[in-house]
Amino acid sequence: MNDPIIKEHEGIVVVRDDLLPGGTKSRFAALLFEGVREAVYASPVYGYAQIALAIAAKELGKRATIFCAQRKEKHPRTLAAIRHGANVVEVPHGYLSVVQANARRYCGMFGHRLIPFGLDSEEIIVALSTVAASLPIVPTEVWSVAGSGVLQRAMQRAWPLASFNAVQVGHVPSAGRARVFVSPQKFEQDAKLPPPFPSCSNYDAKAWAFIKKHATPGALFWNVAA
Questions:
Q1: Which of 34, 63, 91, 203 sits at a 20 to 30 Å CA gap from 185?
Q2: Do 155 and 71 lie in a common domain?
Q3: Cβ neighbours of residue 4 under 8 Å, at least 6 residues apart?
Q4: pLDDT digits (tens, 9 = 90+) for 32-63
Q5: Position 167 in a domain
Q6: How do strand 113-114 and strand 63-69 relate by DSSP bridges?
């Protein structure tokens, strides 16, 4: 896996994992297939983990099964997961809690590995913190969005002296010691002030408005996906 590409945009140092197919989660998704033939994930239709897991499974010759809410038309990211070989199971009336219950039931029946929401596991946090610590800079101020909060907690291990800021885009994240800002847009809504580079419209892009208002010049923003 290539090292992260770093570029400066409007005075902010940006980790450009939007340039990586499947985004940041693609860096570590293969770890979740160790010792299993099939990994199962309950995904919001907007999420990138479904793509990252599909890519990893295809490269490893294994199987990624994605449970998600049924829609009249499949979301483009779900379609991308299918193109990469994922087995997608759509759940009618699929609130995330219902989707997760169906995924757990499937794993219980067949003995497959259930991947935690946001890929929230110690092995992923360790791997991600190692990549962050290997960057050629040591930031003093760090920004990201936070879904599960995995990225925030990993970066806090990598850069213990930095100050951290997280933008909440869904449920309350486990964001460690980060100062948390809450996006006014619902998770499924697009960012009203997106950044000047490709960024996931209902996820990473929502951080930019807060960065422009509160960040100091030279702060680092980790852009997870396009």
A1: 91
A2: no
A3: 15, 16, 17, 20, 131, 135
A4: 999 999 999 999 998 899 999 999 999 999 99
A5: yes
A6: unpaired
